[in-house]
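Lab notebook page, bench 4
Experiment: in silico fold of construct C2
Operator: M.H.
Input chain length: 145 residues
Purpose: comparison with the prior construct
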Amino acid sequence: MTERRRRWLIGAGAALVLAGLVVFFVFQGLDRADKWAGVGSFLLGLGLAVYGLQGGNSPDGGGQSADGATAGGSINQVRGVAGDLTIGGSRPVPPPPPAGAAPPPPPTGGGQSARGARAGGGLNQVDGVGGSANIGGDGTGSGAP
């Protein structure tokens, strides 16, 4: 299932649940609807707290972070590479893939962050490469020739 279709289905489901709750509360009357809303808020808060304690739904425990990092050279964050990748320097000739092998899909969830990072060279964040990414240059990852 594509990400776009998944998001659309989740949005449609949320809209249906919301509409159902509105109809339910209208037929309950003000006093009973207030009580149900209190119970629902408690359960929602409890569920969100458990979700937050588990670190969300990311299978890799989150993403990559270089927040506040300081480096005299480059900072490279790379994950989810299923094929070729070269950062700086000359690109070697990759070996041919095995017959019938399909690269695994890139990981979902998490993300990459470099808020407040300072680098003397380049700062490269790469995620979900299916093959043949080349961030060339002088070997610093800065992309300079």
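Observations: Confidence is low (pLDDT under 50) at residues 138-145. The beta strands are 64-65, 70-71, 75-79, 85-87, 112-113, 118-119, 123-127, 133-135.
Next step: discuss at group meeting.
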